[in-house]
Recover the amino acids of this structure.
């Protein structure tokens, strides 16, 4: 009895292994989880419209129309969103669970894509590559944007952490919030947007005990405000020597009552004594002003009026239904 059951159980085990083996080899690279507009999937010589839930495998080409959009979720958890008028190819994909056998290699021929990396890029960033006609984009982060502009130039922007954009001339790093533009494959990518770095103002001087802002402004020890960025501070002229007083150009007018030269005596007239100036009179000394006496007024006492408390009527009894 046991001899008859042993071959059947062994055969069932082999059938289970054989049934699981093709499923593992034919596992899809990703699934289409969003579609809008005209989106086509090209597999070999066949081409068909893409619907939500369609499988994407290695070698497939996804083409979006002028108003088409699509989003693909890969088996490692990564996401790729395709913009209108794009052509995206899954060149090689393998989610083996270890960095030695993982591969995520895709091509973007035109259009644009936004990507968020999955476990393949986290296990080893060197296994994640996006190839375009002019540049190769590698990642050391987890989110980025690639698109061709109206002039046909490639624009790459970092959204999280850092990515690396390489051409035949070399590689440049792109941090989150930065963008580069690739003009040709023989030139280095050019930065088009860099985070601004503004100079920091000088540290404030701590206030002393009892010091106020008015005291500091009066003493002139308040820290000056920094000049605007790109505008030089106005130059303060150095103090020069004091200008000499202006020369006196007016001549005092003589007093006609006091002649400066004596007039000759008249002929036949008796000699008269010369005119003399009257003696100067001295003014009496000024008396200092007297301060009026200080009159202290008695304080005004206002009567305090105490009002009787207001008695409110008792509330009405509650209504019982």
């Amino acid at each position: 009895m046991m001899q008859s059951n042993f071959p059947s159980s062994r055969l069932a085990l082999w059938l289970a292994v054989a049934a699981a083996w093709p499923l593992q080899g034919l596992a899809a690279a990703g699934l289409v989880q969003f579609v809008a507009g005209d989106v086509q999937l090209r597999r070999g010589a066949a081409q068909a419209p893409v619907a939500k839930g369609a499988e994407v495998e290695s070698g497939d080409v996804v083409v979006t129309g002028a108003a088409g959009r699509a989003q693909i979720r890969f088996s490692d958890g990564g996401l790729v969103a395709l913009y209108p008028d794009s052509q995206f190819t899954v060149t090689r994909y393998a989610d083996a669970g270890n960095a030695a056998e993982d591969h995520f290699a895709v091509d973007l021929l035109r259009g644009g894509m936004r990507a968020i990396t999955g476990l393949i890029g986290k296990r080893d960033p060197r296994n994640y590559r996006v190839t375009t006609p002019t540049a190769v984009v590698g990642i050391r982060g987890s989110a980025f944007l690639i698109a061709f502009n109206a002039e046909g130039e490639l624009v790459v922007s970092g959204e999280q952490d850092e990515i690396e954009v390489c051409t035949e001339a070399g590689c440049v790093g792109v941090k989150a919030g930065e963008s580069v533009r690739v003009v040709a494959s023989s030139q280095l990518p050019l930065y088009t947007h860099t985070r601004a770095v503004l100079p920091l103002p000088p540290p404030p001087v701590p206030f002393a005990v009892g010091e106020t802002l008015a005291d500091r402004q009066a003493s002139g020890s308040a820290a000056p405000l920094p000049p605007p960025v790109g505008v030089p501070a106005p130059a303060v002229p150095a103090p020069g020597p004091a200008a000499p007083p202006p020369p006196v150009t007016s001549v005092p007018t003589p007093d006609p009552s006091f002649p400066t030269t004596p007039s000759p005596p008249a002929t036949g007239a008796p000699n008269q004594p010369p005119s003399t100036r009257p003696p100067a009179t001295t003014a009496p000394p000024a008396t200092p002003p007297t301060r009026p006496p200080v009159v202290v007024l008695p304080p005004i006492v206002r009567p305090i009026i105490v009002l009787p408390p207001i008695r409110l009527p008792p509330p009405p009894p509650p209504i019982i239904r």
Notes: Confidence is low (pLDDT under 50) at residues 1-6, 13-26, 195-199.
